[in-house]
Automatic annotation (TrEMBL):
The protein's name: LysR family transcriptional regulator
Lineage: Bacteria, Pseudomonadati, Pseudomonadota, Gammaproteobacteria, Enterobacterales
Keyword RNA-binding in record: no
Domain HTH lysR-type, residue spans: 1-58
GO cellular component, one term: protein-DNA complex
Gene3D superfamilies the UniProt entry points to: Periplasmic binding protein-like II, Winged helix-like DNA-binding domain superfamily/Winged helix DNA-binding domain
Keywords: DNA-binding, Repressor, Transcription, Transcription regulation
Provenance organism: Rahnella contaminans
Family to which the UniProt record says this protein belongs: Belongs to the LysR transcriptional regulatory family.
GO molecular function: DNA binding; DNA-binding transcription factor activity
Length: 295
């Protein structure tokens, strides 16, 4: 049994098609068949049932595929740590972040402050949405995630709120209220809203919807966007209005105005999350530093 066989097993289990799996693995289809056959012989159990038209996991395959996926993640993490050590670092920390947090001073403060304290630790940062980050955390592919609350609470994870920012309104420059420095959210109740697509009850999308509900209305027309920058860009085209964290005011796009809200409950919170039982000294040091900053 080797890494290539396990990787082939996991990819084939995901797509259930030898041709597609071989293409994804960048190997010939006969080589993929050999990997699966060798793994089945090594384990002494069938992992797939297959005929000319269908491929399906056996009961045994269903029981083992998640463990195989975790084993691959551990192996890849092992290789990453070895590379980091070869480059002279004494450890590595892989941090995920949501795109809207990149302009928040909290992220720069965390990263730069920790680097000064621990210059021998390599920090790798990756952008993912909330759902992707939590999945990667649970699969040990991230050490820590910076997400926007609210987030699902998993017993395997711990959470720490690090920064709460007011939401502000983004209006087209020709909107009647665009010249007002501060407005009530309810005054936008008739406008189309551009809202970040997040899972129900999660992240910035839910914070925007919740703020509208607290203001006494539900937007009648909503266009969901991939991220905050897309929403601001669409506002500049007159497609509607948006709610974003106030840190996004530094995004200078023509034909938009940013207005503060009188609604004190319209906020968005950045939250750190990590595996509760992760044995990573660099992670423990990072969390300790984050707690110091939030006291």
């Amino acid at each position: 049994m080797d890494y290539r066989q396990l990787h082939s097993f996991v990819v084939l289990a995901e797509v259930l098609h030898f041709g597609k799996a071989a293409l994804q693995l960048n190997i010939a289809q006969p080589a993929l068949s050999q990997h699966i056959k060798a793994l089945e012989q090594s384990l002494g159990i069938p992992l797939f049932t297959r005929d000319k038209r269908h491929v399906a996991l056996t009961f045994e395959g269903q029981q083992l595929v998640e463990e195989a996926r975790i084993a691959i993640n551990h192996y890849e993490k092992f290789l990453e740590n070895a590379r980091s050590l070869r480059q002279g670092f004494k450890g590595q920390l892989k941090l995920g972040y949501v795109g809207s947090s990149i302009l928040d001073p909290a992220l720069a403060l965390l990263i730069n402050g920790y680097r000064k304290k621990k210059p021998d630790i390599e920090i790798v940062i990756e952008e993912h949405n909330v759902h992707e980050q939590l999945t990667l955390l649970l699969n040990y592919q991230l050490d820590i995630a910076l997400v926007r609350s609210p987030v699902p609470k998993y017993p395997e994870l711990e959470y720490l709120d690090v920064a709460t920012r007011p939401l502000i309104a983004v209006l087209p420059r020709n909107h009647p209220l665009a010249s007002d420095q501060k407005i009530a959210l309810s005054s936008l109740s008739e406008c189309p809203f551009l809202i970040q697509r997040d899972p129900p009850g999660v992240g910035l999308g839910w914070s925007a919807m919740n703020a509208c509900q607290k203001a006494g209305f539900v937007p009648q027309k909503i266009q969901f966007t991939r991220d905050v920058s897309v929403a601001i860009g669409l506002v500049s085209m007159g497609m509607g209005v948006a709610l974003v964290p106030e840190t996004q005011r530094s995004v200078m796009i023509p034909d938009v105005n940013y207005c503060f809200l009188t609604d004190s409950g319209a906020t968005s919170t950045l939250t750190l999350s990590w595996q509760r039982h992760q044995k990573n000294k660099a992670l423990a040091d990072f969390i300790r530093y984050a707690r110091e900053l939030t006291v």
